[in-house]
Design brief:
6-stranded mixed beta sheet; Rossmann fold
Amino acid sequence: MNIEMRGINKSFGTNQVLKDAGFLLKDGEVHALMGENGAGKSTLMKILTGVYTKDAGTIFVDGVEVNYKNPQEAEKAGIVFIYQEINSLFDLTVEENLFMGKEITKGFGICDKKAMREKAQEVMDRLGVSIPIDAVMGDLSVGQQQMVEICKALMVDAKVLIMDEPTAALTQSETEVLFEVMKGLVEKGVSIVYISHRMEEIFELCDRITILRDGSYIGTEYIKDITMDDVVKMMIGREIGERFPQRDVTMGEEVIRVENLSHPRYFKDVNFSVRAGEVLGVSGLMGAGRTEVMHAIFGNMPEATGKIFIDGKEVSIRNPREAIAAGIGFITEDRKTEGLLLEKPISDNIEVANLKKVSTRNILNPKKQIELVKRGIEEFRIKCFGPQHECHNLSGGNQQKVVLAKWIYTEPKILILDEPTRGVDIGAKKEIYSVINDLAAKGVAVILVSSELPEVLGMSDRIMVVHEGHVTGIIDAATADQEKVMTLATGGSL
């Protein structure tokens, strides 16, 4: 299937998101669509699939002009969009989500449960996914939910597959399985639009790349004719320099120590410490228990046992309020459900954790509110039309910047960052890395949980590796490499 989009314009209120944007997809290719957060990539694809109505421009599919009224119409034509945001009903099972609106029926419209179960299992097996189809979606990890979303798309006989950050929540092994599935689909003539901020994936998978910047079309190139530096320059209009900023931090005293932290379901006898100015990277495969350990430290897992010491004194943390009072900030893995008030504006989200900063004698001070929020928008370069911009209308990367601003302005002693650069473009990643370095320079103890091994290796002083709820090793980043980390992550020893 060939798709051509010409002169596409789209505005939300006074905010023009796309300006004469274009895109050309050829039959049977993997085509990368890249740009900074807020560049208009997802919006352009949502216009293609009928989620949004364009203000101007034309769309041609196999030479015929089309205007899909909704995603269902696009899907019937063979164009399927796997969204960056999880698009499931969390109180239903995996099977029920897979067949939502696509039920297999027999006589009198009754669901053919056996056929549906067999079809679901077939698709799961193709992806190498070992998730029970009767599991409730809300009980799955973010990575598992993402795999179910991918399975959903494969239930349809798609001619074009649009994938928006599909590997953001996946482990390395899951990513490799997905890539094999994608290669198989391309061999069968399926075209894939691949939206990702992970450069390595783009250069491994894609045939061509189209760049958008500030809603405008910048250019299309064959991957074989372009370098990563060329892509970055096209995306942000300037050179970016070293991928991971250099820092020279003198570490101080121990700030936090965890002893024998255990949970009956997720982890056992976890022990580690972090010093002032240190970045402790935390690595491990999906489901290893990394995120659950962090939630326990933050008081989110009441069944957890063990001891936590802050500045040498044992503390009791029974809930997040007590964690915040103890000086802990937590940027969670899932910004959509845990990090943001999506229907609220940027101002409410930044202020909610900083009420003392924007109050005078326990009464909200409008001047302080405006100053704090404007500072956040400027310092974190949040692309928006102002403090009242609702967070659900921001790009994923800009949503993440709001979460960062919210927590960093609380001035924590200890900051836990769980997948802080997921779905974030390379320019914004560099900004986030600089923020992490600045915090470390101020003496903050940073715990960085990430599925991206280059990120863990490039940003950490030490790396703690978790396998099936156990810490299999803590190694110096200076002597670490991907092979050593993966050996520990799969249960091996050095």
